Structure prediction request, 248 residues.
Amino acid sequence: MKKIFLIGIVVCLLALLNGANAATSKKKKPKTKHKIEFVTKDKHILAGDLYIANPSTNKPLVVMLHSFSLNALSWQPIAQQLRLKGYNVLAMDLRGHSRSVYNEKLKIKSRFKYTNSDWQKLPEDVIESIAYVKSNYPKINTNDTIFVGADIGASAGIIAGASMKKKPEKFVIISPMLNFKGLYIPIKIASYTDTKFLVILSKSDKILFNFYSSTKPLIITYPKGGPGNQLLKVNPQSTNDIVNFIIN
Prediction:
């Protein structure tokens, strides 16, 4: 009787061990959101989030650039939707915002003390961010891009994209400023001959509406809302408008 009892215990223990081994041998789910950080050529630390499609695809990299005083997290709902549709999405904290406020020596410089020369580094930051992804995530297609920018992020993106050898295939700009701290975009927009644009504005943005109407992009106006990402927050249907423009 004792023998049978001991054999039973051994069998149970072996079964538990096998179960534990099987559990640990299961493949871990791949991370779909990576935190990235790098030092720019002028020794500033930039940080952001990279949403990685699973399974991997060859679709264009979507680059998302937030509004003044916000951060990369403001894009998370749209970024997650795009990731599920097979797009890799890069959302950076712009220089002077959130995690991107330090230089290489970890000294903080507030954006409220920025001069025009500081703000005019944003477009180069965009270019360097894409280069970082290309170097560290070689399976991601960075040769083809889609940009989404809100107010100052739109301005930085338009100037950055205009300097790229291969311009973004599509561009979503939300209440973009025509001139902010020397980031002057009207002339740069003229260089986008093949890029498809979606311009999102509030009905109160009459000056912007008149300007962008002359460039003949697709324009969506909402009855209410503030600048940039705040406009999207007040008009939640804008998420579907942006996603549908990108995927179709």
Q: What stands out?
A: The longest strand covers residues 33-39.
